UniProtKB/TrEMBL annotation:
PANTHER family: 5-KETO-D-GLUCONATE 5-REDUCTASE (PTHR43669), ALCOHOL DEHYDROGENASE, PUTATIVE (AFU_ORTHOLOGUE AFUA_3G03445)-RELATED (PTHR43669:SF3)
Annotated protein name in UniProt: SDR family oxidoreductase
Family: Belongs to the short-chain dehydrogenases/reductases (SDR) family.
Protein species of origin: Aeromicrobium fastidiosum
Source taxon at top rank: Bacteria
Length: 268
């Protein structure tokens, strides 16, 4: 699809970071956008800024992206049928093997089930209309791995798997699916990890920064829009992730050994 004037979009996790960047780029192209985020005060501020620049095309609803009722409220707030849903909300919680069950549950609910519930709400209507687009923000961690955080690595792998399933099942029936997999992006999530008192959390962030250049949320948004226009499944703001992914598949043992060496270098 080519988002533009007349496009109706929903973006979750849109109060800051990647979600805010995607929402801004969509609005600049003439789309109407519903913003969702758990942080109500920050969402209000972001929506106010974007509304001042794109009057009449911004709505926002605060809430939990994994909650069925909130997903319904986002769709209800849209000025017409939703053409594009960007399931961008995510959490980066839980470091090391002894992660609490509550952190596992939170990561699974937000990073995976939030996307599942959105697709359940929208795909049947898209099939009837013969058109619709679902974007999953899954992270490079979903293609490779995330040192330090088993919760993030596992749930982002699951997000990629769900996006693949959606594309295989509905991609030839009018539903476009795009899986966004950035590596290091200059967001609050990155900053919080770098300044954490948890050494394993800091290692996780060092692994992201050390693997390649960090980009801006607007850079990520630009790559996503290019992928949507081209109709490609993966949107890779860091092209090297595709190379790493191919090498991992070609020789997994060698790739794992390389990750072990990388982890050791970060620990020292």
């Amino acid at each position: 699809m080519t988002p533009g004037s007349g496009t109706v979009a929903v973006v979750t996790g849109a109060a800051s970071g990647i979600g805010e960047g995607i929402a801004q780029r969509l609005l600049e192209r003439g789309a109407s956008v519903v913003l969702g985020d758990l942080d109500a005060s920050r969402l209000d501020a972001t929506a106010s800024r974007l509304e001042s620049e794109h009057s009449g095309r911004v709505a926002h609803v605060a809430g939990d992206a994994a909650d069925v009722d909130h997903v319904a409220a986002l769709i209800e707030a849209a000025p017409g049928d939703v053409d594009l849903y960007v399931a961008n909300a995510g959490v980066f919680r839980g470091f090391g093997l002894d992660v609490a069950d509550a952190d596992w549950s939170l990561a699974w609910d937000v990073n995976v089930m939030g996307q599942v519930r959105a697709a359940q709400a929208l795909v049947p209507g898209w099939l009837e209309r013969g058109t619709g687009c679902f974007v999953s923000t899954a992270s490079a961690a979903g293609l490779l791995t995330q040192l330090g955080s088993p919760t993030y690595s596992v749930t982002k792998h699951a997000a990629v798997g769900f996006a693949e399933w959606l594309a295989a099942t509905y991609g030839d029936r009018g539903v476009q699916v795009c899986c966004l997999c950035p590596m290091g992006v200059r967001t609050d999530m990155l900053t919080e990890g770098e300044t954490s008192t948890d050494e394993t959390a800091r290692l996780a962030m060092r692994s992201v920064v050390g693997a390649g250049a960090t980009v801006t949320p607007l850079d990520v948004a630009d790559v996503l829009l290019e992928a949507l226009e081209a109709g490609t499944f993966f949107a890779l703001p860091h092209p090297e992730v595709g190379t790493m992914y191919a090498r991992k598949a070609a020789d997994t043992d060698r790739w794992v050994s390389g990750m072990q060496r990388f982890r050791t270098s970060l620990e020292s």
